[in-house]
Write a structure and sequence with these properties.
Distance between the termini: 34 Å
Largest sheet: 9 strands, mixed
Strand content: 15-25%
Order of helices and strands: EHEHEEHEEHEHHHHEE
Number of helices: 8
Number of strands: 9
Length: about 220
C-alpha cells in the first residue's frame, strides 16, 4: 500500500494510472514555509512499513518561484506575468520507503504561454479553474488555450512526473501492474514525447538530484 500525502485530484488521477493500491492521507503542512515542501509533507504522514509519496509543484520564471494564486485577482496577475514567456514547471517529489529511507528529487518541464490577451485571461479566471493551481493554469484543462507550446514531461506539468515516480516506487519495492507510458497514452490520448528521457532518468534516480526533461524543441500543446 502507498500513502499519497496529497489532496490534489490531479495527483490521485495520475498515480492511479500505475494500478497500485494507495490511500490518500493529505499532510497538514504549510508549503510556503517549508524549505523542502514535498519532503515535509511525506514526513508528516509517513508510517513505518508503508511507502509514502508526496509532491509539490511550482512555476519558475526568471529565477523567481511562483506558487498558487490566493484569489481571482492573483490568478489574473500571474497569468499576465507568464503571458508571452517561457517558464519552467518544477515538481519536487519525495518518497519515504517502508524502512524510513527518504528519496527526494526535482523534475522540470518547460512551458511557453501565448502573448497576453486580457479578455482570454479574464474568461479563463472566471471559470474558477486557475485557483489552487501552480501558476494559475491547468495545461490539461481550459488553461491549454493560453499555452503556446511545452517541452518535457507532460505529466510533470499536470502535477506528478509519472515515469520518475514509477521508478522511485519500484525502487521502494512497490509492484505496479501498469507501466507509465502506455497508461499515460490511454488516459490522455497522445504519447508523451519525453517518456524515453524520463525513463532514462528514472532508472538512475539520485537523492537530491534535479532532472530537466525538455531536451528538444517546444511542442504545440495537445488539444
Amino acid at each position: 500500500m502507498i500513502r499519497l500525502a496529497s489532496g490534489s485530484p490531479r495527483r490521485r488521477e495520475l498515480l492511479a494510472l500505475l494500478g497500485a493500491p494507495f490511500e490518500v492521507v493529505p499532510a497538514d503542512v504549510d508549503e510556503r514555509a517549508a524549505d523542502k515542501p514535498a519532503l515535509a509533507k511525506a514526513a508528516a504522514v509517513a508510517r513505518r512499513g508503508v511507502v509514502t509519496l508526496a509532491a509539490d509543484t511550482l512555476i519558475e520564471l526568471a529565477g523567481e518561484r511562483i506558487g498558487k494564486p490566493a484569489d481571482a485577482t492573483g490568478a489574473r496577475t500571474m497569468l499576465a506575468r507568464l503571458a508571452g514567456r517561457t517558464h519552467a514547471v518544477r515538481t519536487e517529489v519525495a518518497l519515504i520507503d517502508a524502512a524510513g529511507r527518504a528519496l527526494r528529487f526535482g523534475v522540470r518541464s518547460a512551458v511557453t504561454m501565448k502573448p497576453a490577451d486580457d479578455t482570454a485571461i479574464a474568461a479563463y479566471v472566471a471559470t474558477g479553474e486557475p485557483l489552487d493551481r501552480a501558476g494559475a493554469y491547468a495545461i490539461q484543462g481550459g488553461g491549454a488555450a493560453l499555452v503556446s507550446a511545452y517541452a518535457g514531461c507532460y505529466a510533470n506539468i499536470v502535477g506528478l512526473p509519472l515515469c520518475h515516480v514509477f521508478f522511485a516506487l519500484r525502487r521502494a519495492g512497490v509492484a505496479m501492474p501498469e507501466r507509465p507510458e502506455p497508461a499515460f497514452t490511454r488516459s490522455f490520448g497522445f504519447v508523451c514525447p519525453a517518456w524515453r528521457t524520463a525513463y532514462a532518468q528514472g532508472r538512475l534516480l539520485r537523492d537530491g538530484a534535479e532532472y530537466f526533461t525538455a531536451t528538444y524543441a517546444l511542442r504545440a500543446t495537445p488539444m
